Amino acid sequence: MSKTATLQIDGKKYDFPIIKGTENELGIDIKALRGGTGGVITIDPGYKNTGSCESAITYLDGEEGILRYRGYSIEDLAEKADFLETAYLLIFGELPTTEQLQKFDKDIKAESHVDEEMKKILDGFPKSAHPMGVLSSLTSALIAFNPESVDVDSEEAMYEAIVMLMGKFPVLVSWALRKKQGYALDYGDDSLGYVENITKMMFKRPNQQYVKNQIVVDALDKLLILHADHEQNCSTSTVRIVGSSHAGLFASISAGISALWGPLHGGANQAVIEMLEAIKADGGDTAKYINKAKDKEDPFRLMGFGHRVYKNFDPRAKIIKVAAEEILADLDMEDPVLDIAKGLAEVALKDEYFVKRKLYPNVDFYSGIIYRALGIPTEMFTVMFAMGRLPGWIAQWREMRLRKEPIGRPRQIYIGENHREFKTVEKR
Ligand code: CMC
To answer: What is the reported pLDDT for 115?
Structure first.
């Protein structure tokens, strides 16, 4: 295999090194392109062919349907690990020993309170506010109460910012929900595990004792692990690029939450349930909606289908489909939209349009059915995705800072007007 790629422009040849990843992925290193060629750049809208970094966190092979965090398969982690140890693995690179995990847990718990004045900010939002907007704003507002989290160059200072955010974020997630529901804002209980604490803060009614529901805790733990990282997607790239200006961890994550919100990204989990409900209300005619998705004149897309990277089954969707069936059975519930989802998937997976474009169900296709069974309102689904993605975002931000990556600043090809003479308003 050649170690260089040659580019020819106007008869002149330029060599660029080819770099190889640990899974034999190849990339043409064009760092010297612009300088060496006198200003030539590459154009790649949507970055479909552009590697923005080298990363040791997550490996995914979209053709084979493989996803691994730090070398461990998503199937193993979803079955055998818990969310907190998965977070540790993603952020620090290794599965923690008992002592390391206990220390991480203790340090996070020491930060699991939020300044009471943050409640005033939350008060300012109307109850109708989308919880993703609330979460992004509150995450950004945390900076004002913890200014020391911004200027973090050393590993120690980064660690402090990380445990601060891991501690405070679940409080903000639960407040976003409780605001919607009109419940008094609650804090966690340091005697509980990380994920159990999230369920306590979210679901405990003001007038009732908290009672643990192991099925709910386990289901949420699994969903959070499945969402914990997915290499350089839209929100993660946002976190890295905002962090590259040294804006600080909380500002970077707040921007990542905004990026995740969109229906083409994390917002798809809300959009899927809304779509399934609409199909149900319309008589459950799945064929009609498959045809709408195929019609290029119709803006409708089959939400929860297709992926920029997976051109095979999304391994997370496989796990979630089984989990959704198990959880509904464990909770002794039925959800007619699960049948609609399965019906849609069955038809789409055999339909030439979807087969030809390699469109498979993605992670969001079934996750909403589980969230709903756990009693989480639809508008909160993407917030739960953000809760799961938090350690991945943190890991990517930390890696970017430790590798001392330069500020992110793409180039462009200008296609606007050439120089024009300015005319005063009366002469236009
Ligand atoms: N329904 C119908 N057609 C689709 C769909 C869909 N869900 N997804 C892609 N296509 C078609 C698209 O119209 C295009 O057709 P053609 O080649 O004839 O123009 C072809 O498939 C390729 O699509 P693309 O939009 O160029 O692919 P992309 O890599 O830019 O987009 C995607 C990937 C996920 C944005 C897209 O598949 C989509 O919009 N899916 C629905 C939204 C969704 O479920 N998003 C969640 C992604 S997974 C969670 C996450 O990581 O955020």
So the answer is: 95
Q: Is 307 in the pocket of ligand 1 (CB under 6 A)?
A: yes
CA angle 88, 91, 94 (to 5 degrees): 60
**Mean pLDDT for back-to-back runs of 10 residues, the chain (428 residues):** 91 96 96 95 96 97 94 97 98 98 98 95 96 97 91 91 97 96 91 96 92 92 97 98 96 98 92 93 92 94 91 90 89 87 90 94 90 91 97 98 96 97 96
Whole-number Å distance, alpha carbon 304 to ligand 1 midpoint, is 9
Q: Is the CB of 368 under 6 A from ligand 1?
A: no
| C-alpha of residue 308 to centroid of ligand 1, in Å | 7
Name which residue sits closest to atom 32 of ligand 1, judged by CA.
307
Q: Within 10 A of 42 (CB to CB), how many other CB atoms are there?
A: 14
Q: Virtual CA dihedral for 274, 278, 281, 287, nearest 10 degrees? A: -130
Active site residues: 307, 364
Q: Which amino acid is at 125?
A: F
**What is the residue whose two structure tokens read 């407040």?**
175
The pLDDT value recorded for residue 138 is 97
306 CA: nearest ligand 1 atom: 37
Cα of 383 from ligand 1 centre, angstroms: 22
CA of 302 to the centre of ligand 1 (A): 8
Residue nearest to atom 28 of ligand 1 (CA): 308
Within 12-79, strands assigned E span 12-20, 26-28, 58-61, 66-69, 72-73
- Given a contact cutoff of 8 angstroms between Cβ atoms, the answer to whether 159 and 398 are in contact is no
Q: Six-digit token pair at 98?
A: 């008992």
pTM: 0.93
Neighbouring residues of 386: CB distance < 8 A, sequence distance ≥ 6: 132, 135, 173, 256, 257, 260, 266
306 lines ligand 1 (CB under 6 A): yes
Q: Any bridge partners for residue 72, and if so which?
A: 69
